[in-house]
Amino acid sequence: MSVGAKFGVVIKGLMFAYAVTGALLALLAFLVFRFDLAENVTDLSIIAIYVVVTFLGAFIVGKRVKEQKFFWGFLLGFLYISIITVVAVVLGEVFQVTSTANLTTAALCIGGGLLGGMLS
Hints:
- By secondary structure, this protein is mainly alpha-helical.
- It has one domain.
- It is 85% helix and 0% strand.
- The protein has helices at 3-35, 39-65, 69-90, 100-119.
- The longest helix has 33 residues, at 3-35.
- The chain is globular, with a radius of gyration of 15 Å.
- 28% of the residues are buried.
């Protein structure tokens, strides 16, 4: 499989990850509305969703790529959190890239991608 084809698989994995993210965030929004969940529970749930979907997306990518799976999983996790960061900045979110919470979330997403790729 060529590098271009592998990158295409990563793009498809990202699309899958963002689709699942959207569905899970919609479910979380409903749960917050219905049960008036605390902000810290909501924040942890969002991070957990990010990590789970990067793991799943990288797992799928690793199954399709079949070589250097950890690298392609890393790439998926990195691109996933990078795109979220860019969208947040473009939408005008007060976003501090160097904040501990954002760096931790980025590390968890990249780690989820690495793990998903390695275990595939």
